[in-house]
Design brief:
The structure is a homotetramer. By secondary structure, chain A is mostly helical. Chain A has 18 helices and six strands. A two-stranded antiparallel sheet of chain A has the order 1-2. A two-stranded parallel sheet of chain A has the order 3-4. In chain A, strands 5-6 form a two-stranded antiparallel sheet. The radius of gyration of chain A is 31 Å and the shape is elongated.
Chain lengths: ~475, ~475, ~475, ~475
């Protein structure tokens, strides 16, 4: 903003005798953050000019003049030539001011029947409606990276954990795909949010609707919206689409934070399952040996940031009187920051996943026989013991194994028989991690065959979605 | 829970030498809040028993014995005869314990291949899947109440506000319908959440899938689910459906809090537009004259409660390692409380709306001519003045009106002409609130004709949805 | 950041073979937001250089060279001449890089025994320690404005509300002072936060403490801290001071949001108690007559913003392993934004309060006799009726007053006597708003004398605090 | 609540013609959760009766009758004989109703000049004021357990981590004490909260103060409060003390969640530093071998629960008009739940810490030489190399160590010399973990001597605080 200028008059100055106080201007002006809406503001204004002409409110030539002026301003933005002035409260008034300088008094006709209330809501919806496919595009890349890694590790065994305690053997592909499917749900939620977003409020005026013969649906279509709002009072203050976006983003960040937690653990020396590529780690200014998983830690940490934006906006919206209140200006910064955060994070995460490598030997070596205790119980079940009883018997075997520091597969048969005579020599065949995994072949299980089916479904999903971008 | 008993053994006691510490039990046991899942736990267990039989894991007669036992336990719950024991950690183990007492050792077969991890997730999804239509049913009643009031007030004028400052005249029906449409979006979100909820994780085991030949899709259908989860690791810890529910509920509470704020204001003596029925207000223990809008204040206040549950759960989920971790036990209390809160609040709100009455005389009297300033600007626009210039000219008229304490309609024509010669005698025709409203007849506007169209759409929406319950 | 440069090497590059990926750098670098710590980074580095020299780790002349270099860099910042380079990850490395260019290899000695972990924590604490008195200074101005207004309105009567329903008459000064006292608690919390903040972690190294003979307490004092942390592992990741700040700020914003809500209402035409100065309101781009209380709405709306930062940071911190994790980098943006928000908001609010004016006539006219119902009950109490019974009797009088549309003071004595024979002619003396207010003279009450006492205490508080700045 | 009764009249029924609707009662009544305030309600009522007598509002004998009645009701609660009735909205009205039954009409004098607004606030403050020392008492036990463990492990070496990557060797005692000090800050915050809490609002009436000659300060002292509120409007809706409590509790839960995360990791087989006692772990219903750290996971998970309560209450409070609004009834459930959560969690955590055991052999074995890289750099610094240059040189050594798969201590001297001729034979003396730790003896460092000093300070702190309980 230029410093050496008289503060120019605001749009709404007519009835006022005094200038706004500088402290109010500093608090109130949204230009610093809403200037990124310039494209949408211009595109929607072009649509509105045409709608005014179609309704006979202005002439075709006036509409053409407005459109030409708006296009030339758009070019100024693209070429970095647009200059903001001290009186520009927000992007909308900046463009209206510049339009006046560009096309003269006819510019004053563009605001006919339009209020900043419906204009801001329209611009913001248009902006978000265009960002969501971009965000989904970034998610597809994370999914693609997971998917490509999974294809390489359908048969790679690793420990599966619950409560971060070794539970049962699984395959690495199965683990990778678990995050893939979480992200499909996130994509679906963003798509639903997009449908909520691309509903046009334009033609709602400040609150009561427009007295001019505007075909709102045609106008909406011309701005690439899918439909129109049903009630003008609701329309000017409906921020559901932003809450929906922040909700969907918060939940996706939960998913990514959990994946990050896993990879931080699995790439630590204690686990040693995964090696991160140097390009996606950082060092320490003090300790020369360090290689830190900053991308993953920031993924985890930024889950809080986005959830905070959601909590904040819900608080801001709570208890407002109906229609537009200035409190709603607090909607944009969290939304913009959430989109920026995702678009910074997802590419780094994609790169990290693409370049990470597994250590199958270490993973296999981390399997211990306790993880087959359930299989031993299933062995007893196959011999007719009810599962609950079998669970208790195997518990005793585990206890003996711990007390004698002997692996389950090395417990003597008489030890087993002392627990239950049902045990027989064939119990030792249970201690085969690969066989354990292969048995879990029901849909969604960790058996390689089941995982191959998962990957096939995932590929179909990905093809279906990524081509629709 | 009976006090005079030995703490009975838990399900998982096999390998343990010592009893769990009482402080752990007190912290850990979820029975106090999860016992409300008894019906779903039994229904899903019946389904599981049948699936085990269909897969040949148990015999048909065993399945029948299990089903009979489970039904008899269900009856015990219905008749208030079920007794919890000290060893019951949660509803699942309580029912499993009782099943053993009821049908003997065969009960031990029910847990074959099933873990509490997939069982709890299944039960909770089943429970919520049944609650959502009930919640939506309660919302329809609020909508119906709004709609019935709106039909009575299509032509009732009232001030419309932005920034809680008189803006333009609107109709009461338009105001009532603005909340109606917000609620349609809430219903849609709850429906989407239901679709996310009724996906069965059963057959995922503790984390790795089941080694038994369970037809998971058939099992899902038998429990009234719509589909199955794709990945067992994801399935046992996917709480997206709860976050979705809390997100949708938080946003609905924002809508209701805003409606509540409006009605608190409009029913205050200062506004006087609405009179609340005594049955939906309360008095003061100190001040004999008081009549307080508690229902509305609690509506507003409980918006915080639900948003808190959402913020809390997102925090709990953040950064957990994959699959089941005990932290997830924190999912149920906020979910249950959110459903209970809505189901307590919505009926009270419905009653309040049904019984509130408008004071059209007071509403009409609250209109002041400043609210027609935009119409005066539109009058100038009709004479060819660009809107922005017209806005400035009317601003001067408003200024003069304030300075001379003269309503706009009483300003002399020379005063108007001093501002602009375009003003003429016909300007005085602008000062007609009804005419102002009637002009806003574009779709979604406040004109009675547009509102009648809204009400027609709303009726169709309501018929479509409420009959699908 | 210059675009046309080779990305220069990071500080920690020694063991690395590949450059960090650009996506990681974009995600990771904190320079865009932490550059505002330049002053604190330099001041604390000067302190550290001296401590190294005092411990004999470097020579006095080396310390002097470092100090001179750091001062010259500080000047570069002040004169806007400091240039960031592509390799600068954060403000700390930028300054270290520039120090090398300025003083040569000796610059490499400054990091002896120091890690970015303790350095960042020290700088941030130093920054906040200096901001808190500034924030408190801004609060004092709001308090001063409230106090000055209160002094003018000790005898100005207005309706007091509970549940936004007329309750009892109060004085305007009493209402103004209610916010004053809330702010005293906020100031106290910020002061407690400052005490938590100015505890120096420097000398904790990356996590394990320093192997160099640094006198940590002397170092702390030289940087204007009050004490030192007790445990190095805790010290490098203790962000309590930021959570404390955000908690205190969130609660203050609650207070301000409530004051804003009151003033929005009281300055609306329906209430008409307060007139806002034009300089602190804004107009509408569509409706020429509007004068909107944007400052107050943003005050209310920004309460959500700050509470969101708090919720977000608590989420980010939850469940982190001990000592430094990169997630902690998410601490600075919410802190900086919270301080900026307060420092933008408080001056605008101060101006608004200073320039608002009351309409005592309108306020007095808004009192209605129902607000004296409690006084009528007290009248009966004075005649020996237990209060609870008196409350019921007056309730009947209120009922009669409503049914007959007669003010309480105009109900006939026989009407009163029909309710209770205790009523007598002297009941009519109760209907005196001024007398009602004057009776509430116990400490903290609304009686002018009690309020004068309040104002006196407030003045003492303000003198005590504002002179300590 | 008895079912077979006419809903009895509420306290405020005088002016009402109709009964409250059942849906309102269900929403509105707070008895289900506020009945736990019975003791405080009675104690504060006794105080109030005496204050009324001291002010001459009632006679001494009336006060005595009230006191006797209240004490007999208190006994009914203690003996489980108190019966709630259908008309009891909350604990206050239940006790007032019962007092009437017990002492007759004089009971109606107790409410003289008192409103539920000041009464509820007083009771809640009194309740919390008594709970905080109990909570702190539970914290001291956790601290004591940490402290006792620390005393055993002053010389026990273990890896210290940053970014969950091995950083430098530390001692186990140092790690244990890091949580100790966090808890000292939590105790301090709870103490500050207690000071905010024990400020009496009694005598504020509904909002405007009391017209009766009550000595508010004497009354406060008699109820064990420390002071009185300054402004009655503020007093009846000041919930700062609850927000402070939830803020302090949220932050403590962050600390405990971080400790829990560490112990979950350290007690996992991958780390193997800690063994949890069986009594504080749980098993699996499916997997016989499991031993899950549920106490720690719930500690981590409940951090979200408490942070959610804080976010929720801030949302509820935001934007309320001044004085009492019914929204404030939403304050109690989160407060009660937070206290209950802490008092359930802390004892379990204490037991877990007391009974956990370390595996010093495994901890020592987990140290690797990379963790001494900083010490190698310090070795070079001691020879005059600036630290930053030394860091780079050691980075090269680390690189060589990785490339040749040779530990740093086994790299040939010529390899070191190839990096820098400064290296000499004495470099091999650096590879001594104990020596590395011992060097970090500055205050707050991990050296055993420094840790002994820490423990001494801790003991003093603990003695000072725990004896003040």
């Amino acid at each position: 903003m230029s410093d050496h200028q008289e503060p120019s008059k605001t749009l709404w100055h007519g009835r006022y005798q005094s200038e706004a106080d500088q402290s109010l201007r500093k608090l109130n002006d949204s230009l610093p953050f809403d200037q990124r809406l310039f494209r949408e503001d211009i595109v929607c204004s072009v649509g509105y000019a045409k709608a005014l002409a179609a309704g006979g409110v202005i002439s075709e030539s006036e509409a053409q003049a407005l459109e030409n002026g708006l296009h030339s301003i758009l070019n100024e933005f693209y070429w970095g030539q647009f200059k903001f002035e001290a009186g520009d409260e927000d992007i909308h008034t900046a463009i209206e001011r510049r339009l006046g300088e560009t096309v003269g008094p006819v510019s004053g006709k563009l605001h006919t029947g339009r209020s900043r209330n419906d204009q801001v809501a329209t611009d913001t919806r248009s902006w978000l409606g265009h960002r969501i496919p971009e965000v989904n595009g970034s998610i597809y890349k994370v999914q693609q990276a997971l998917f490509e890694q999974a294809k390489q590790h359908v048969e790679t065994l690793m420990p599966g954990y619950t409560h971060l305690r070794a539970a049962q053997p699984i395959t690495a592909a199965h683990w990778l795909m678990s995050t893939f499917w979480m992200l499909t749900r996130d994509v679906r939620r963003f798509e639903a949010c997009r449908a909520s977003t691309l509903i046009s409020p334009l033609g709602s005026g400040a609150l009561a609707g427009t007295p001019y013969p505007i075909d709102r649906l045609a106008l909406a279509k011309s701005m690439f919206f899918h439909g129109i709002t049903e009630n003008s009072l609701d329309a000017v203050s409906d921020r559901d689409f932003i809450v929906e976006f922040l909700s969907a983003a918060s939940l996706m960040m939960v998913h990514l934070s959990r994946f990050a937690e896993d990879v931080i653990l699995y790439s630590s020396p204690q686990f040693g399952f995964i090696k991160l590529d140097e390009r996606f780690t950082t060092g320490s200014s003090l300790m020369p040996q360090k290689q830190n998983p900053d991308v993953l830690e920031l993924t985890r940490g930024k889950a809080g940031r986005i959830a905070g934006h959601l909590a904040g906006l819900l608080n801001t919206l709570k208890g407002l009187p109906s229609t537009y209140n200035k409190d709603l200006q607090e909607d944009k910064e969290p939304l913009f920051d959430a989109v920026d955060t995702l678009q910074t994070l997802l590419p780094a995460l994609t790169g990290l996943i693409e370049t990470m490598s597994f250590d199958p030997v270490r993973m296999q070596a981390s399997l211990d026989e306790g993880m087959l205790a359930t299989d031993v119980a299933d062995y007893l079940v196959a011999k007719g013991i009810p599962f609950r009883e079998a669970h208790g018997l195997v518990g005793q075997a585990v206890r003996r194994s711990l007390d004698t520091n002997t692996p389950l597969s090395k417990l003597a048969l008489e030890d087993y028989k002392a627990i239950s005579p049902i045990f027989d020599n064939d119990v030792y065949a249970v201690f085969d991690f690969g066989a354990s995994v292969a048995k879990r072949e029901a849909s969604g299980g960790t058996a390689p065959d089941a995982v191959r089916e998962q990957i096939k479904q995932a590929e179909e999903w990905l093809t279906r979605h990524s081509t629709s971008v």
